[in-house]
User: What shape does this take?
Amino acid sequence: MNEKLYINETREEFDVLVVGSGVTGGWAAKEFTERGYKVLMIERGRVVEHRKDYPTEGKPVWTFPNRTKVNNLLTEQQYKVQSTSYAWNDTTKHFFGNDRDLPYSTEEGTDFHWIRGNQLGGKSLTWHRQSYRMSPYDFEANAKDGHGNDWPIRYKDLEKWYAYVEKWVGISGNKDNLPQLPDSEYLPAFEMTSPEIAAKRRMAEAFPDRPMIIGRAAHLSKPSKLHIEQGRMMCQARDECQKGCSLGAYFSTQSSTLPAAVKTGNLHIAPNSVVHSLIYDEAKNRVRGVKVIDAENLSTREYFGKVVFLCASTLGSTQVLLNSKTKSKPNGIANSSGVTGHYLMDHCYNARASGRLPGWEDEYYSGRRPTGIYVPNFQYTPEKYKKHYVRGYALGGDASRGNFQGGAHADGIGADYKTSLTKPSSWYFGFYAQGETLPRFDNQVSLHPSKTDKWGIPQLHFNTSWSDNEKAMMDDCAMECEKMLKAIGCENVSSGVSYNEKPLGSAIHELGTARMGKDPKESVLNGYNQSHDIPNLFVTDGASYCSSATVNPSLTFMALTVRAVDYCAKEMKNRRI
Amino acid sequence: MKNDVKETDLNRREFLQKFSQAVGYTAAATVLAGSGLSVAFAYTPKSDSASRPGLLFTQAQMQTLRDICDTILPATDTKSGAEVDCHGFVDHQLVQCHSEAQQQMCVSAVELVERNAQSAHSKAFTELRSEQQTKILRDIEALQSATGDEKGQFKFLKSLIVFGYFTSEEGVTKALSFQPYPGGFKGSIPVNADTKAWGSLNYY
Assistant: This one.
């Protein structure tokens, strides 16, 4: 990387300021720089360089002081919230925010888990990599059943942009021809295990409306020329992903979009730059840049650009929007609708079920597959809804054989017991819910009236809860999962719900706090992720969502971002921005 | 099966070669260094953890714990629990990563073992022959000499010992089958009498 890539003080007016460097920030930077625009990518955290800054990659479990668990006191004092994430442990904690330095508050009697990745690359380093298109039904759901505002776009608007990002990213998957889950541009699918193939067949017989497919993941199962040119290699199924992958086998900013943007020579990066607020020219009604607090020495500086793309994560972008205000616009300069911060969504991952699956004792698998099986939402139109709640859920899951971790809890003492622990045990099949969360005005994030963080920025204050709809959905899902597992042939099936333990935020799919819409009176952004109020301001991350759907959101906000860049570039060319 | 192994091996070698070409040999060596070799900063198992008090356990308790580890996981074609310092690991891990309540559960479990040894044989657990030690522990699991709660405490201690063993270098690479570079995912491979479960890089 060239030395001039990273900058601190500058008076240059850039064509575009991109705030954030995660999935959407990386895409925005790549797309603008490749079109010849001078871009400054502003990142609140430290620099993480591909390969060089993956200190735990490839290190075996026994080389960690606590075998990858984290010291109690450190967890309690600095990572209490982050430690609730499935991906957080001693091998990954350097890619998570430090709760002590990143405080937020919650309304009494409510809770919210805000999991953060504040470094170059953001959460693209640690994401779960599951990649699904939203369906035509998803974009119509709000209009059809009246929950939330109507998306200003339809599937057709996004279709070619999905294809565009998918070819670049590399999505492993199988052509499934499902109306509720449109196919992507695929690399070869990961294999199912034999019990999964059998389960798929048994499900097709017992529940024809619930096809089981292999999960689609942003992994190079077989890199194309395009991926090799990015410097990426085939996935080795190591399960090292969240430590950073030097092979670039999964999509991250570092492995994929950043090298492309750097190659153009049009990119600069301002690391350790916490965006405080937007600089606003009230007379011209344009944003001129951003005010930044240095993450380390707390000094203030400004960056200027003709256009600002907020790609700082749903809550990060919303915090900047809310904190950008004037005397005449005390609720935020781009908030004439008053809905900024409202309609906060996540996915509800609060039901699960599992059971032992007899058979296939003579089969095993090799490698640590970076995806599982998937059952797409089968309640995707109002006619298919259950009577007592609206919308639906998808299921993740897999079949795997038990090992010593299960055996550790069995009775047994001595050599035979020890030997049994070295063998693969029974197959187990599990499902977990990925429920749609309704967009509700009441689920709100706002600026705390008095508490600030160490950069002097008002803390976010959360007032969120699962509605009866999500709870009823999870209760139903747990029961349905039991039925499905029994149909598959499982024994000792058990299920549970966890909505009382796992609040919003737990799925790390925050969405919707600066939603799109046709009507500026009830939405923040138009159909191109452009602010209704301020033409040279765009928000292209999850904040722009009108509904959560059930699918993992990253692929969709990649597509939204490249579409917004294409639109913005044309508007700039035509001098409308 | 043989062909499978060969093919995987070939794929791996081919892969390592390509990877080195792509990123340079020095970078490749750095990344690959973790794959199967001990690293200097490792928590190092000690050969004499029972020769002094632990962080949590007294010296006498450390000795009892050492023998509990060896009774649950004796030497077979792989080392025993005590030989890989499971007792030192458990003592360390409890203090580092577990609650005081869980620490107390384990102290109680060790005390129970000692108490049962005394009442059955009027001897310390460490002074018993190995089949006597085995019976003491089996009787706890069979609820012959323990209440349900006491068995629960013992089982928690046992799960930590098992975890410690199968995340040690010996456990991961010898007792289990270690594959740092699987070379991709295969959905089905045959199992025979010698097939071991995979020792993964990641356990939490």
In short: The longest helix of chain B spans residues 2-23. Residues 50 and 84 of chain B are 12 Å apart (CA to CA). The first strand of chain B starts at residue 177 and ends at 178. The helical segments of chain B are 2-23, 25-32, 59-72, 86-97, 100-121, 130-141, 148-166, 169-175.
